[in-house]
Design goal:
CATH superfamily of the largest domain: Calcium-transporting ATPase, transmembrane domain
Number of helices: 28
Bound molecules: adenosine-5'-triphosphate
Helix content: 40-55%
CATH topology of the largest domain: Calcium-transporting ATPase, transmembrane domain
Strand content: 5-15%
């Protein structure tokens, strides 16, 4: 029979309030839909009418808007302020060069960010969430179910929901089995909320909103509102992402420099006035010195280094969803992971069916299969449970038993239930983890102990053990989602399944530990099964912690306990998250690799969430890194790419800041010692511009092998300490140059002095770029950039442009002396850096 909706006098945008008050059938009619779903052509027409199912705030930012946004950066603000001051005192050269610096860095930055965002958006598309929709090719055709991108959903579409799905739009439930949803992003409630497909609705039990996610159970629902019409869009409750450790580190360094930039001009002015009697004429110089401190290319180098790393990873199928996460991957020192599918192949195979006395008993398997069959068929989850499938594959026919209702596996209660009619009687069949099932059974204390010991023995062989129990169920007690709460069950026995350890896991685990990463296994499985699997993979297991025993510990005690453990078992989703938070509180940078709905909370709690492409939607949405497959070797690749990119950023910061700090100290000191300013403002700014441009090559530098061997994090304090030391050395080289120019070469007049110092400065910058790095090899871009920098320094004073910058040609002896100073500086730098980087294995960057 074809289901024919009554009057099709449907408004194009039915008010949600109307739908909330209606029965299932009335809601379907209002939406001009039916349980067999929309016809494809109708869905297309609706898509044109309603638009894509995209939240308004999620649209891409345009290039001009990005350019305008880059002006809001603190460095740019200070630079513009200094440019304004220069313009006010009619120092047009200084103001002009500052504007040029700002324009260059803003254009480069917004262009880099635009390109990086476009490529990460394209990569994100590859792992975008989909919805299982029921549609018909034509009015009379049978409906089919298929996955479509969430943005293609329209009001009236009939969708299926299962554990781990993100609710793709605002929906009205048509059928639900054991459905619980997590709707914290909308209501703040942290506990999962049960939902039912009632015909006479009370409250919003029968509605699920976009932004919530399915924790357990399954449902069929009709889409009531999409895109801007959803409650989430209306409430602007889109979750704000917390600032990552990397963002905080970069901000920390930036603000330290910004403070210095603001302080330098007044200090320089006062010192010049007091010691040299100079007035406002020293202001352009003071401004130029402050500008000289800025690492203008910081945002560009950061974006380029991270975008390059994630582009390389994408070629291997690893997708980094937000750039800063690549740094965080490189910083991971503890990798928490689930067991199933990560350490095992996730291809369970049925082994045995064992009665309470330990002997084989086919009846246990029969009940297990009845439970699996009816939970799969009545609940009809979009993705069938692997354990249920394995049981059905290995079980004989289970006879004439009719399913009445079912509550699919719930990762919190760890049981699944089916209500069946067996002959004339109703019977509830419960299957699940050993402890929650035994807890629900009527057993004498010795029998309970014997059953638990039997389960331990089976689990010690590395088998997955499911307990099975049954009970008569009076027909007048229908509430299925209360089935799991049944007590007084009769214990039937155990079924066991084998899930072989993954053959690739031992090598991948060994590779991770060579990179200084400690693996920790957080699983919902039995302690003995988990311990045996880990031992088989060569992991040193130590004490196996049972998460149930951690419940009463304080956060500090928990941190202590899990800090020592390698395997934490019987974890509920929230316990996995608590363990991750405890490890972070101990100062670890924690990565979490998982793929199930039971991994979601931990994924969100971790510094970096990692999942395979086949993970449930909600986990994939929360993850920062998505792998082509659940493969520990791919995590290793991501770690290497992260450390390589961070290594390049750290090198850039060390070089840029050491050189800039050195120059600032030298200029301020020389400005006070000399009767004239040691450099013209325009010269300071030109050499700054050349140095900035050359440093872009550092984003493409080679990786230091030592950096790849240990977790690498941007540590502002360590970088600033490094900069103070090497900045001081750079200042000494500058001051030696001043001494040579004044006393050895007897340079007469400011232009010759300025030129000598300009040449030396450009050459030392080239030397610093080559030597202040942890590796001796030079990449092609770096070789070209440093060569160009040195060439500009040596040739600009000899070129026709020299006079425009206040430079003059120097005699050959001056060049020789300058080269000698730079050579001496280079040798000293080489000796110090080799020593500094030789024992880098023991130091932080
Ligand atoms: N379909 C199912 N029916 C009944 N019991 C199940 C089912 N799936 C899992 N269980 C039981 O619940 C326990 C916890 O399962 P859960 O999915 O939380 O973790 P897991 O898959 O064992 O491990 P991991 O967290 O490492 O992926 C399992 O050890 C098993 O005893």
């Amino acid at each position: 029979m074809v289901w024919a909706p009554e009057a099709p006098s449907t408004p194009s945008r039915p008010a949600q309030g109307d739908i909330a008050a209606l029965s299932r059938l009335q809601a379907l009619r209002l939406l001009d839909s039916g349980p067999r779903g929309l016809v494809e052509a109708d869905a297309e027409a609706r898509l044109l009418r309603h638009g894509e199912n995209v939240l308004p705030g999620r649209r891409p930012v345009s290039w001009p808007r990005r350019l305008a946004r880059s002006l809001r950066d603190p460095f740019t603000m200070v630079l513009l302020a200094l440019g304004l001051v220069s313009a006010l005192i009619a120092s047009w050269g200084t103001a002009g060069v500052i504007v040029l610096l700002v324009v260059a860095s803003c254009v480069l930055r917004s262009n880099g960010e635009y390109r990086a965002d476009r490529s990460t958006a394209a990569l994100r598309e590859l792992v975008a969430t989909t919805a299982t929709v029921r549609r018909r090719p034509s009015e009379d055709a049978e409906p089919w179910e298929r996955e479509i991108p969430v943005d293609q959903l329209v009001p009236g579409d009939v969708v299926k929901l299962g554990p781990g799905d993100l609710v793709p739009a605002d929906v009205r439930l048509l059928r639900a089995r054991g459905l619980t949803v997590h709707q914290a992003p909308l209501t703040g409630e942290s506990a999962p909320v049960p939902k039912r497909a009632l015909d006479l609705p009370e409250g919003d039990d029968h509605l699920c909103r976009q932004g919530s996610s399915v924790v357990s159970g399954s449902a069929l629902a009709v889409v009531a509102a999409t895109g801007a019409d959803t409650m989430l869009a209306g409430s602007s409750a889109a979750p704000a992402r917390r600032l990552s450790a990397f963002d905080r580190s970069v901000n920390g360094i930036s603000w330290t420099l910004v403070r210095l930039m603001v302080i330098i001009p007044p200090v320089a002015l006062v010192a010049n006035a007091v010691l040299r009697g100079r007035g406002l004429e020293a202001l352009p110089f003071a401004v130029a010195v402050a500008v000289g401190l800025t690492p203008e290319m910081l945002p560009v180098v950061v974006t380029t280094a991270l975008a390059r790393g994630s582009a390389l990873l994408a070629r291997g199928g690893v997708i980094v969803k937000r750039l800063a996460a690549l740094h965080d991957v490189g910083a991971i020192d503890v990798l928490c992971m689930d067991k199933t599918g990560t350490l095992t192949r996730d291809r369970p195979v049925l082994r045995d069916s064992i009665g309470p006395d330990g002997d084989p008993d086919p009846e246990v398997l029969r009940w297990a299969a009845i439970n699996s069959f009816w939970t799969l068929h009545l609940a009809d989850p979009p993705v069938p449970d692997a354990l249920d499938e394995a049981i059905l594959l290995g079980a004989p026919d289970h006879g004439d038993v009719e399913g009445v209702d079912a509550s699919p596996f719930d990762p919190v209660s760890r049981v699944s239930c089916a209500l069946v009619r067996d002959g004339g009687a109703h019977r509830v069949v419960v299957k699940g983890a050993v402890e929650p099932v035994l807890e629900r059974c009527t057993l004498s204390p010795p029998d309970r102990l014997r059953a638990a010991r039997l389960a331990d023995r089976l689990a010690e062989e590395g088998l997955r053990v499911l307990a099975v129990a049954t009970a008569d169920h009076p027909a007048d007690r229908p509430a299925v989602h209360r089935l799991g709460e049944e007590r007084g069950l009769a214990f039937a026995g155990f079924v066991t399944l084998a899930d072989e350890p993954s053959p690739e896991a031992p090598a991948a685990l060994a590779a991770l530990s060579r990179r200084g990463i400690t693996p920790k296994v957080l699983t919902g499985d039995h302690p003995a099964t988990a311990a045996r699997t880990c031992r088989d993979l060569g992991l040193s297991v130590g004490t196996v912690v049972n998460a149930g025993e951690l419940a009463d510990l304080s956060d500090a005690e928990l941190a202590e306990a899990v800090g020592r453990a390698t395997v934490v078992t019987r974890c509920t989703p929230e316990q996995k998250a608590r363990v991750v938070r405890a490890l972070r509180a101990r100062g670890h940078t924690v990565g979490f690799l998982g793929d199930g709905v039971n991994d979601l909370a931990a994924m969100r709690a971790a510094d970096v969430g990692i999942c395979p492409r086949g993970a449930v939607d909600v986990t994939r949405e929360a993850a920062d890194v998505v792998l082509a497959a659940k493969d520990l070797a791919a995590v290793d690749h991501a770690v290497v790419a992260g450390r390589r990119s961070t290594g390049n950023i750290v090198t850039y910061l060390r070089i840029a800041l050491s050189s800039n700090v050195g120059n600032v100290i030298a200029m301020l000191a020389a400005g006070l010692a000399l009767p004239f300013l040691p450099m013209l403002p325009v010269q300071v700014l030109v050499q700054n511009l050349c140095f900035d441009a050359a440093q872009l090559a550092l984003a493409f530098d080679r990786a230091d092998p030592a950096v790849l061997r240990r977790p690498l994090r941007l540590r502002p304090r360590a970088i600033l300490r490094f900069v103070v030391g090497f900045g001081a050395l750079n200042a000494v080289a500058d001051l030696v140059t001043f001494a040579v120019l004044t006393w050895v070469l007897g340079v007469a007049g400011a232009p010759a002095f300025h030129t000598g110092w300009f040449i030396e400065n450009m050459l030392t910058q080239a030397v610093i770029m080559l030597l202040l790095r942890p590796i001796s090899g030079v990449s092609r871009p770096l070789g070209l950039a440093t060569g160009a920098l040195a060439a500009v320094g040596l040739l600009l004073p000899l070129s026709p442009l020299a006079s425009a910058f206040g430079l003059v040609a120097l005699p050959a002896t001056s060049y020789l002396w300058l080269l000698a100073v730079v050579g001496l500086y280079g040798v000293t730098l080489l000796a110090l850096t080799r020593r500094r980087f030789r024992d880098r294995g023991r130091r932080t960057p």
